[in-house]
Design goal:
Layout: E1 2-7, H1 14-27, E2 31-34, H2 39-42, E3 43-45, E4 48-49, H3 52-63, E5 67-71, H4 79-84, H5 111-128, E6 134-138, H6 153-167, H7 170-177, H8 204-231, E7 238-239, E8 241-242, H9 251-255, E9 262-264, H10 274-288, E10 294-298, H11 317-327, E11 330-335, H12 361-373, E12 387-390, H13 393-399, H14 410-422, E13 428-431, E14 442-445, H15 453-464, E15 468-471, H16 494-497, E16 499-503, E17 536-540, E18 543-548, E19 553-556, E20 560-565, E21 574-581, E22 584-589, E23 592-593, H17 595-609, E24 622-627, E25 630-635, E26 641-649, E27 655-661, E28 666-671, H18 673-678
Parallel strand pairs: 1-2, 1-11, 2-5, 5-6, 6-7, 8-9, 9-10, 10-11, 12-13, 12-14, 14-15, 15-22
Antiparallel strand pairs: 3-4, 16-19, 17-18, 17-20, 18-23, 20-21, 21-22, 24-25, 25-28, 26-27, 26-28
Length: 679
């Protein structure tokens, strides 16, 4: 288990470094991320490098048995660069230039920025590729975090090149984007602009392609740095830190280019349910590169600095969330940062070594966790999940454009479906629609509005070969160009589902969606009849559900109706259908349930698919995560709870039968063969 955090020695006098290293050893630190924001310290001017200080700290760390995850320092161009080359700065959709003085103030497509970054990385990699302290490379930092989209002339020029490569001819672009609408027909690629601020709604096909381009442009930048490091002779793993389900970047595509997935995870201590959104992010990271352990590259020991209210973690919560990451496949637990800054924007951000010193709860918890991680055996990375939740970035981008029956927050909806399964103590993989689905007994498809031909064939094959499918409303509406297919809606999955939608029946969106998922929510009564209908009730084999966002008007073709709407404008009309297709079965739900309804219908679907919880009888506040033959049990609640589980304590080796977990207490249990059979 790697253990440590971001280390920024350039912020401190050299006489502090020796104290840092002594305390790192006391805390059990095994790796630090070095130099991530050190460009201005390494390179004082173009062509002028100062390596002496970096040599000294790398050697000092190595002498004390601490490994280095070497950052390429390209995330924050120094003042000399933006002064000499202001054209590297990005712009927003209004044409306003983002100034320096913060971080990430560069246009990813700027030729000048790319040249300067490449020169820096070449010198850095040449110097440290074979240094024994360097065990990993950290390219840039949190790509796209602060500048989600750049609309500058650099982006304009690169977007046109990207479009030429994709479409070859301007006629093909016009066809894909439907530019005959609103007199938008282009006669040259040189007429195409990024989707900058306009009087009204922009072309959805163009907006979708710009988001694809943006993800690809940043990935191209990462690949440039990676290849320079490799060309210098480096053989260590190369990565960059992800940020959970981050909208602007398609991490499915990125994962193919990255050796080890690393992630930054900051659940909000003010939200008692944040461990569920955390679990979603962790499952996503594990799923991006199946069978390969990942690393929690950043989390906090306590409070942050960037939320409106930055609550500290409760006693034991930091360790519990670290155990959660390991249970979901991580082979490293790191923090931002090692020593708390005394100056700068993040001085209130907690650290492993806090401003308040070593006589603190934070320091005691840091050293205790370091000692614990030092005893971990090697763990299998697989979750052995039998349930997959489909998640697709291109669909997210298409849904975010607007001009649709009702506004949806796709990322949040997918997390709610995941949370409903997670609360039932099910192991879950997050899966892209074109992945091999054969290992799963149940696939849940939330709001897959944009469905490619490849994905529809893949899902169809999965069901035909014996899989069970649960599909919710507003799925299979458009193709990969965000255009309707010939023949109506649900064209791609029509054979599988046995239904088609005639009208989406938009409902008034819920007034508040402040919590991701709530323990104990129940359906709310009400007819919802007439204009302004806010929900629709339905009753089926899964019980009574409250549906929101849509009450779709279905035309049933070959499926069986298993539920009808109880109220509203579609009272008595089909609300849910079920169909046998080949060796499998598919269920379609013509609405989006509230939290309680998601629990009910997923519980029914799990039973239909023969999927059991990892453990029965657990409190919804207890999380269980499977990693190979190891179960991680964590009590995220405020009350002590008892868990019936048998096996062997992973760390002590002692037999385990019944476990009593205090708030934020955790245990990892290696399952016995008998226990495996019971699970």
């Amino acid at each position: 288990m790697y253990y440590g955090g971001d280390y920024n020695p350039e912020q401190w006098p050299e006489d502090v470094w020796h104290e840092d290293v002594r305390l790192m050893r006391e805390a059990g630190v095994t790796m630090v991320s070095l130099g991530i924001f050190a460009w201005a310290r390494i390179q004082r001017d173009e062509g002028t490098y100062d390596w002496g200080w970096l040599d000294r700290i790398v050697n000092l760390l190595h002498e004390n048995g601490i490994n280095v995850n070497m950052g390429t320092a390209t995330a924050s161009p120094p003042p000399w660069a933006t002064t000499k080359y202001p054209e590297i700065l990005p712009q927003d959709a209004d044409g306003t230039t983002y100034g320096p003085g913060s971080r990430q103030h560069y246009a990813p497509t700027s030729p000048v920025y790319r040249r300067l970054a490449a020169e820096l990385v070449h010198e850095l990699a040449t110097r440290y590729a074979n240094h024994p302290a360097v065990v990993m490379w950290h390219v840039n930092n949190e790509y796209g975090c602060h500048v989600n989209y750049d609309y500058s002339d650099n982006a304009r020029d690169a977007f046109r090149v990207w479009l030429r490569a994709k479409y070859d001819t301007i006629d093909a672009l016009n066809e894909a984007w439907g530019t005959a609408f609103w007199s938008q027909i282009y006669t040259s690629f040189d007429q195409v602009l990024p989707p900058r601020k306009a009087p009204y709604s922009l072309n959805p096909g163009g907006a979708l392609d710009f988001k694809r381009f943006t993800s690809d442009a940043s990935l191209e930048l990462y690949v440039m740095e990676r290849d320079i490091i490799r060309a210098a002779g480096a053989t260590q793993p190369i990565s960059t830190n992800f940020m959970g389900a981050f909208p602007p970047l398609d991490y499915w595509r990125w994962a193919e280019e990255i050796d080890v997935i690393t992630n930054d995870n900051y659940p909000d201590p003010n939200d008692p349910q944040s461990f569920r959104s955390s679990a979603f992010a962790l499952d996503l990271m594990r799923s991006l590169k199946p069978g390969v352990p990942w690393i929690l590259m950043e989390q906090s020991t306590g409070a942050l600095n960037w939320r409106p209210s930055n609550a500290p973690k409760a006693p034991g919560q930091m360790e519990a969330l670290s155990a959660q990451a390991i249970g979901h496949g991580a082979d490293g637990v790191l923090f931002f940062q090692w020593r708390q800054s005394r100056r700068g924007s993040e001085k209130f951000h907690s650290a492993m070594l806090p401003q308040a010193g070593t006589l603190t709860r934070s320091w005691r918890e840091v050293t205790t966790l370091g000692e614990t991680l030092g005893h971990f055996p090697q763990l299998a990375p697989e979750s052995n999940a039998k349930v997959g939740v489909l998640f697709d970035w291109e669909n997210w981008w298409a849904l975010s454009h607007g001009d649709q029956p009702v506004a949806l927050d796709y990322g949040r909806l997918v997390q709610r479906w995941h949370a409903a399964l997670h609360a039932q103590h099910i192991s879950i993989d997050i899966v892209k629609p074109t992945a091999n689905l054969s290992a799963y007994s149940l696939i849940v498809v939330p709001q897959l509005y944009l469905l490619s031909d490849e994905a529809s064939r893949n899902i169809t094959s999965y069901v035909h070969n014996g899989g069970q499918l649960l599909v919710s409303a507003f799925t299979d509406v458009v193709d990969e160009d965000d255009a309707f297919r010939e023949g109506g809606y649900q064209v791609g999955l029509r054979q599988v589902l046995g239904v088609t939608v005639e009208d989406f029946g938009a409902l008034v969106a819920p007034a508040s969606d402040s919590s991701l998922w709530s323990v104990g929510d129940s359906p709310k009564a009400g007819s919802g009849i007439g204009p302004g209908q806010s929900h629709a009730s339905l009753t089926g084999p899964f019980g009574t559900l409250r549906g929101e966002y849509f009450a779709e008007e279905l035309r049933v073709l070959t499926a069986d109706v298993i539920a009808t709407f109880d109220d509203g404008r579609l009272q008595g009309a089909p609300a849910a259908t079920h169909q046998v297709f080949g060796a499998g079965r598919a269920t379609y739900l013509a609405t989006i349930p509230d939290d309680s309804g998601m629990m009910s219908i997923t519980s029914w679907a799990l039973a239909e698919a023969g999927v059991r919880p990892e453990l029965d009888g657990l409190s919804p506040w207890v999380e269980v995560a499977r990693r190979g033959d190891v179960l991680t049990l964590i009590n995220h609640g405020a009350e002590t709870t008892k868990v019936k589980a048998s096996g062997q304590d992973l760390l002590s080796g002692e037999p385990v039968e019944d476990v009593e977990l205090e708030p934020f207490e955790w245990i990892m249990i290696r399952s016995s063969e008998d226990a495996d059979a019971e699970y």
